Amino acid sequence: MANNFRKEFPNHFHLPERINRLGELAYNLWWIWNPSAMRLYLQLDRRLWEKVTHNPIAFLHQVEIEKLENAAADASYQEEYDRVMTEFDAYMGNTNSWFAREYPQFKDRQMAYFSFEFGLHESMPFYAGGLGILSGDHLKEASDLGMPIVGMGFIYKQGYFTQKITEDGWQETGTFHFEFEEMPIISIVDENGDAITVSVDLPERTVNARVWMLQVGRVPLFLLDTSNSGNDKNDKALTSRLYSSDPEIRISQEILLGIGGVRALRKLGYDPSLWHMNEGHSAFLTLERAREFVASGMAFSDAVEKVRKTNIFTTHTPVPAGNDQFPIWIIDKYFPGYWGQLNLTREQFLDLGKQTQSWGEMFSLPVLALHLSERTNAVSELHGDVARKMWNFLWPDRKESEVPIQSITNGVHVGFWLARRMRLLFDRYLGADWFENLDEPEIWSRMDHIPDLELWDVRRHMKRKLINYAIEEARDHWQSGKRAPSQVIADGVMLDQYSLTIGFARRFATYKRATLLFSDYKRLLRLITNKDMPLQIIMAGKAHPADEPGKLMIQKVYRAAKDFRSSGRIVFLEDYDLNTARLLVQGVDVWMNTPRRPNEASGTSGMKAALNGTLNFSVLDGWWREGFNGSNGWAIGDETDYDDPNVQDEKDAASLYNTLENEIIPMYYQTRAMGDASFQWLAKIKENMRSLPWQFSTRRMLKEYLHKMYLPALEE
Ligand SMILES: *Cc1c(COP(=O)(O)O)cnc(C)c1O
Does residue 242 carry a pLDDT above 90? Predict the structure, then answer.
């Protein structure tokens, strides 16, 4: 493909000749899902590696030159370095990827993937939660499979916020400081050496965005950024934060992503054969594509026919109010110059996204995306049912079951989420081909080859790693002199590595019911403090800064963590991010999820847990309703739907406590000698591994997208 840009790397590191490609490696995110590559940095200086949030560029700027020189002269480091570089070159140079082998006829096509957020790594916090992590995993997997995807999104200069908890458990928000020179962000320029920019029209002005690039293995991800000097102060801030509650900022961002994103790809020389919108935030891209056809002389109706066939839309939001929508006055303010370019009247334009709500007429981005995409999907089977019901009004002459929204259940990227030790175990016992074929159930039927005690050793190692992390964080907090003793207890200094440990971490949105576990606090305390079979609970998560009920839930958890009666066994880890997520899903014994059914469209953190042998204990919502087979974890509640949420909460809480007390705790402690394994528990871990990871991986997910959505579009 002929691209019209050149990459410029801002940094030239002073590295010893023998290992000078560490700089190049830092600019390709391939290293983040290849632990042996990551270890080339980490082993040079562990403390520094932690201090710079696992950011290799900041790391290479700060690491002492002697450490680099010692490594360059060390035979075993050299050997590891050479092995990683050989692997990296083979990966990047591979012309025989899965996609190239299976679909040689499409290998020169391009597929665009648009998302409001990409969660790739803890050092790049421009994601808020599950949606972003999914986008990030989508790109990593596309790279592994050799799918010719190109990503489009935003750089958020202030990232998502950082979280601090006050002594009284109140969430305070901090700002991430983004230094371009410390990020693996590649500057791209045109043939004259000028930065590549795109512009979009907003009311009474034009906004320019600079286009940057991240290299995600073989996949390029382009990111728009308005902080450049040509824009006024407010416009500079357009790409500083995720999910503003101000509708005018929001629509400006969405115009920039949808319309500006199409223009950016054109300018870069891309001509995608299909356009995948991950959630409705990028839905304006459908209009920009239609505008291009209209500008070339086509009637709007023909243009729509053409773009519909190659637009793909994934919806994630099961709650009507959670969908992006704007009052009509905002559309009148932002689009009056645009409908003319589509040869549409105002009324015709508004009809494309119109949704009548009880509070009035709105212009809805999912409605626009649904109207203009032939292929649409929800993100789990149950969510498919919910989505077909929710959007049935757009197809009034069809039955609910005939609403054309398919479902493709989410997955997680195995290379990124699997603990290194567990990966070594799989390398040894699942066969050399396991990673290549990880979406085949047969691979996972080999779990019995792994000796129980080796598996248990790895599980214990991961729990120790999590607990050590919590304790070291607590120590830093304590050392700062700003932390009350009770807070240091809540940080986790009293955690012990032999107790059954439950993890719960996610956004503190109210439907996720983070405090369901606390609904019978006395009973919980009894379980926690049982001397023979103690229970530990580690929680983490952020509430949206404007979500007061979410913040109150954090406070409730935090107060329980500080309460002397919970004896240091309830812990709240501050500042949930990709790093703590990884430690948690790998390190706890049980991963709990308590959404109010059916509000969890899919959920993915439980998949990450399952992959690492952490057992799920969850409401039968989203993915777990498909994953649970009766013996690979536990269910909370059943599939009954309740009209009264209070009744649902009560029933679910009763089920939660009973299963915990009568099944989970006794099974874990079935063997009581310190540190010894419960063989029933290990059998369950193996059943979990046999049944879940192959299915709930992005490997399976991307192939499903390919078959159901991408191939039909490519064949148009
Ligand atoms: C996986 C992940 C999520 C999504 O988790 P759910 O349980 O699906 O909500 C959110 N945040 C982070 C940091 C994650 O890693």
Answer: no
- Confidence at 322, pLDDT banded by 50, 70, 90: confident
Distances (CA, A) of 599 to 31, 322, 520: 35, 11, 23
Residue 200's DSSP bridge partners are: 207
Ligand 1 binding pocket mutation candidate from 604, 611, 617 (most atoms within 8 A of CB): 604
- Regarding whether 645 and 529 lie in a shared domain, the answer is yes
Non-local CB neighbours of 653 within 8 Å, separated by 6+ positions:
516, 517, 519, 520
CA 576 to ligand 1: nearest atom: 13
Q: Domain limits at 659? A: 462-678
pLDDT of residue 633: 98
Asked if residue 140 lies in contact with residue 698, where contact means CB atoms within 8 angstroms, the answer is: yes
Q: Which of 309, 325, 324 is nearest to 275 (CA)?
A: 309
Using CA atoms, how far residue 435 sits from 96, 137, 163, 665, in Å, is 16, 16, 36, 33
Residue 1 has pLDDT above 50, yes or no: no
Between 711 and 8, where is the model more confident? 711
Residue 481 lies in a domain: yes
Give the H/E segment covering residue 152: strand 149-154
Burial class of residue 162 in the structure, from the number of CB atoms within 10 Å of its CB (0-12 exposed, 13-18 middle, 19+ buried)? middle
Residues 88 and 122 in one domain: no
- Residues flanking ligand 1, CB < 6 Å: 129-130, 133, 506, 576-578, 581, 603-605, 608
For residues 658, 662, 668 and 673, what is the CA-based torsion angle, rounded to 10 degrees? 140
Tell me, yes or no, whether 501 and 631 share the same domain: yes
Confirm if 624 and 409 have CB atoms less than 8 A apart.
no
Which one of 118, 316, 593, 605 would you pick to mutate in the ligand 1 pocket, going by the greatest count of ligand atoms within 8 A of its CB?
605
